[in-house]
Amino acid sequence: VLLLASLLLALAVGPSAVTPAAIFRWLLGRGGDSDLIRTVLLQIRLPRAYAAVLTGGGLAVAGFAFQVLLRNPLADSYPDS
Description:
Radius of gyration: 19 Å
Structural class: mainly alpha
Helix content: 55-70%
Oligomer: single chain
Distance between the termini: 40 Å
Number of helices: 3
Number of strands: 0
Largest sheet: none
């Protein structure tokens, strides 16, 4: 639920005002979408949001693999001082 909410927020926030209602209409394929909304969402905000989700997922998988490899649930990359 938080992931979907953050994706909606990432699509709505920016210098060009796009309301959440316009985003829902665009996602459902209803309403008179302007070319500006389509361009802003498809070419700028949606790729940025997907990149953020993929980056976060990749970091989570890498952290999990690091902990499994070292068999330590508190594993980190810093040596003990």
